[in-house]
Write a structure and sequence with these properties.
This protein is an alpha/beta fold. It has two domains: about 200 residues, Response regulator (Rossmann fold, 3-Layer(aba) Sandwich); about 130 residues, Rossmann fold, CATH 3.40.50. Helix content is about 45%, strand content about 20%. The strands form four sheets. The protein has a five-stranded parallel beta sheet, sandwiched between helices. Strands 7-6-8-9 form a four-stranded parallel beta sheet, sandwiched between helices.
């Protein structure tokens, strides 16, 4: 046997393996990064879901047009969670274990989020929760860029106390984690500020007949009303029934978004809301966001709102985290999510305060044409201690 035969064959094999490895890496680099969006296309959140989907689609289009992330395109997997806990478990299971997404970016009801978190933990999937909520939901795999009570309640209560001389308050909510959590914080804040609670009523999460509650509000004669109801539909039914009953007291809604307010017609006129995002924010970044949405969706555009804008922003936070990590590896991305920021329509946002984000909050009031007039702005409001022990 020729003494050069083995080295020659070894060299050919090495070159072949090198080519195969290179091809495999190129194929992997070309594979899209799949992002899951679980959202209530049906159920209580169906009022707000279309705007959330549109914001997701815009973010993916923009990122892909700019070259993707680490040279890879993004691909959306949108699944209906039916605005429910059972639906969320199914949706997240599909995304984590069948679609094998690299992350989930989603706003949901608190009940749906709580049901989905064990699935996220089993799948070790980074999750950016983009909804405002009652606070203190903590998980190694979750970061939050929506507001919490420490950021949202004070503007409404303080405004009613200072400008409407409100001393007595009536609270109304949906009977689940969000409604109970928000109003428990609100009650403590009212009492801390010297106010008095004279009524507190709840309906089931899918409740729509507020007749008895409205009668109790009328009988109690509070100086102001504050509500925290689930999703879009309960907000609409409560506001319309209050209007129909002729109640005109100052009304602050802790769960309303701008898009839902516009669907209410004159029932929403005069309603107060505290939000981190409103379409009237006068910045170059917000104008760019609004113009891009109008260009992409035209007459089909749904009103951008407090639930859809954080959804858009979260894709860019994920992009920054992957680029910082240099990988879509879950452990590396989770670490990086607490170290990156994005300057978007709401301003600069970083989820660096115990997995939550300091946010500029705006107190707004719904006008007769459905637009929101910004009355006051509170810069960089701290979310407080939310998840200090999660590593």
């Amino acid at each position: 046997m020729n003494r050069f035969t083995f080295p020659l064959r070894h060299g050919v094999l090495a070159a072949a393996f090198s080519l195969l490895a290179s091809a495999a890496l190129s194929a992997q680099a070309a594979d899209p990064i799949r992002i899951g969006v679980a959202v209530g296309l049906s159920g209580a959140n169906s009022v707000v879901a279309p705007a959330v989907v549109q914001s997701s689609q815009l973010a993916v289009d923009e990122i892909n047009a700019a070259g993707g992330i680490l040279g890879r395109k993004l691909e959306l997997d949108i699944v209906d969670d039916a605005s429910s806990a059972v639906g969320a478990q199914k949706a997240f299971d599909t995304l984590a274990f069948q679609k094998k997404v690299s992350a989930v970016i989603a706003m949901e009801t608190s009940a749906a989020r709580n049901a989905a978190l064990p699935v996220i933990s089993r799948g070790k999937v980074p999750y950016i929760y983009t909804s405002f909520y009652e606070g203190r939901s903590c998980n190694k795999w979750m970061y939050v860029n929506g507001w919490v009570p420490e950021q949202q309640v004070a503007p409404v209560v303080d405004y009613f106390s200072k400008t409407r001389n409100a001393k007595t308050f009536f609270l109304v909510g949906s009977d689940y984690a969000f409604g109970r959590g928000m109003l428990e914080f609100t009650k403590k804040y009212i009492e801390q500020k010297g106010g008095k609670l004279i009524g507190e009523e709840y309906l089931p999460i899918d409740g729509s007949d507020w007749t008895t509650v409205v009668s109790k509000i009328r009988a109690a004669k509070p100086d102001a009303l504050i509500s925290a109801t689930a999703g879009g539909a309960p907000n609409v039914s409560l506001a319309k029934q209050l209007k129909g009953a002729g109640l005109t007291l100052p009304y602050g809604n802790l769960a309303i978004d701008e898009g839902t307010a516009k669907t209410m017609g004159d029932a929403a006129t005069g309603l107060y809301m505290s939000a981190s995002y409103l379409t009237g924010i006068d910045t170059a970044e917000n104008r760019k966001f609004m113009d891009a949405l109008k260009k992409k969706f035209g007459a089909d555009l749904k009103t951008p709102n407090e639930l859809s804008e954080p959804q858009y922003e979260a894709f860019y936070l994920f992009k920054a985290a992957v680029e910082k990590a240099g990988s879509t590896d879950s452990e590396k991305v989770i670490k990086a999510l607490g170290e990156v920021s994005f300057n978007g329509p709401r301003g600069a946002v970083a989820m660096n305060k115990s997995r939550h984000a300091p946010l500029s909050m705006r107190l707004g009031q719904v006008q007769g044409d459905g637009s929101i007039k910004i009355l006051e702005t509170f810069a960089s409001v701290d979310p407080g201690s939310q998840c200090p022990n999660i590593k």
